[in-house]
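@channel anyone free to eyeball this complex?
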Amino acid sequence: MPPAVLSREEVIDRLMQVLRQQGYAGASLAELSKATGLGKSSLYHYFPDGKDDMTRAVLGQLAARLDRALFNPLRAAGPPRRRLDAMVVTVNAFYRGGREACLLGNLVVGETRERFHHEVAAIFEEWIAAIATVLRDAGFAKGLARTRAEDAVVRIEGALVVAQGSGNEDLFERTIRRLPADLVARAAGRRG
Amino acid sequence: MPPAVLSREEVIDRLMQVLRQQGYAGASLAELSKATGLGKSSLYHYFPDGKDDMTRAVLGQLAARLDRALFNPLRAAGPPRRRLDAMVVTVNAFYRGGREACLLGNLVVGETRERFHHEVAAIFEEWIAAIATVLRDAGFAKGLARTRAEDAVVRIEGALVVAQGSGNEDLFERTIRRLPADLVARAAGRRG
DNA sequence: GATCTATTGTACCGATCGGTACACTGAGTG
DNA sequence: CACTCAGTGTACCGATCGGTACAATAGATC
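replying in thread with the prediction:
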């Protein structure tokens, strides 16, 4: 809907970049305007309820993109180990090797946690469920598959925080590279 | 220094609560004032450089408290497994079973990442090093001890995010309860 | 009691916040 | 050509932002 220079999807993409980098409270309308190249009036034309609307649009687009690029491949047929390896590649690209923050992680802070809880929780849940599906396919019992799937997402989110906080850039990639082997390990072989 | 009703340590404690819950951008002077019971003038009397000063004071006090309650016990003598168990108890209390956010995690967002990077990175580093010490005492090689120690902190930070994001409250406690056994496992016995 | 210094309340500053009003444009459509 | 209407720039709103000035107060010290 923007003139032609930027599609709606691209606009939401720019909004996502600002939100994931600055957080909700830190993302001012001025920055969102600058990042998209749209004036405030245009921003409010597309997103009548302001930042709240924009954030919901961003969450919707994120959910759709993750479905396509991450969750559906996880749920598709194929060797479990290979599906997990594919996830690692996608996740690594999505977070730019740990240099980019997680939007979901930034939306659990302060008042935004309750405000966007439904959307955020749904994405986390779908992610965990998709990994659990792979692990069930790999022969694990339901409970164990679920627990390990949670642990995988926990480690990805944690690795982002610790990598950025400690300045240890490669910690993120190292952490997620271990994931596939760890996840399918038979009650043994934690890692090297 | 506050009249007598609140010690400096207590004031900084209140500031910490606001900062860890709201993040830096979301913590307004009005809120910090209300939480401490000090007017803006008093706040600026104790912390002349405003929010920046307050945040540094909070980080300093956090570092001191973690040293006393978490890192020193980890580095002290005693059975490694017991030291890790103690860490879990302390961590669980500190984060109120996952209901309280991590200040460090909230300070890696936006411009605050660079601003407080030294302090934040130092705390993460000391934490990881302390856990690595335990694991060396448990007989692990230096590299493996370090990697597993990183993983422990990664899982704690990640569990906070995922527990709060997914609304799954007990995920945090479940995750950290697994940590001691996982950490000292002999290249086997990932967990259940 | 006079003095001093730490602490505080009040009032204020310019800047920016999120958000709105409105007139204008320009590309389609009849 | 007349009309419409999605899209936009400009100007503005009251509220709040982080921060400062300053005079009043108060408790200790002499």
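from a first look: Residues 1-3, 38-42, 45-46 of chain A lie near DNA strand D (CB under 10 Å from a C1').
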